[in-house]
Amino acid sequence: LAGGIILGVALWLRHDSQTTNILYLQLGDKQAPNTFYVGIYILIAVGAVMMFVGFLGCYGAIQESQCLLGTFFTCLVILFACEVAAGIWGFVNKDQIAKDVKQFYDQAFQQALLADTDTKNSKAVVKTFHETLDCCGPDNAIGTIAPLWRADLCPQKDSILKNLIEPPSCHKKIDELFSGKLYLIGIAAIVVAVIMIFEMILSMVLCCGIRNSSVY
């Protein structure tokens, strides 16, 4: 059940419309940075393997097999190591992921402003960022003055009240998007790690109990 929950959360994060709209963008020959998906793929793999390993543990407990329970414990140790590695990776790269996406956006934004012929699809990339994140412009001087003379790059508001409100910068929105997603990944990893610790303890207790009660 825990493996199924983790797998479901990971698949939801993988196919979330905001991240997929942005991370599948391509600026000329350059692909949007998709390092974010590394952590997602680790969660998907761990969730799927946990479901199989959970079945292995249940069957070993029913059959009172020390071999199956020992295999179950070994698999849990390996999965736990993967979880720790994923947690360390996420902590180290949490700021770098957003930074890479912001650099990709800035490059597309500058090309959209300066290029007369949009050979690298920069306008479409910038518009996708703006519409997906409901933002406009980066956190710099160009971003503040650009909407005055290139308003076609920013999403059009439906009401007069919304037009009077200055839209947030895309740098801020990118930070919020990936920090929120990485926060969910961190919570899922912690929950899985705690469950695994209990599973390892209980599997060893059960294995020792079977060994002590065996009649030779």
UniProtKB/TrEMBL annotation:
GO terms for biological process: adaptive immune response; regulation of cell population proliferation. The keyword Transmembrane applies. It is a multi-pass membrane protein. GO terms for molecular function: lipid binding. The chain crosses the membrane at residues 36-62, 68-92, 182-206. It is found in: Basolateral cell membrane; Membrane. Keywords: Adaptive immunity, Cell membrane, Disulfide bond, Immunity, Lipid-binding, Membrane, Transmembrane, Transmembrane helix. It holds the Pfam family Tetraspanin. It comes from the Eukaryota. InterPro entries: Tetraspanin/Peripherin, Tetraspanin_animals, Tetraspanin_CS, Tetraspanin_EC2_sf. GO terms for cellular component: basolateral plasma membrane. Disulfide bonds join 135-170, 136-154. Belongs to the tetraspanin (TM4SF) family. This is Tetraspanin. It comes from Dryobates pubescens (Downy woodpecker).
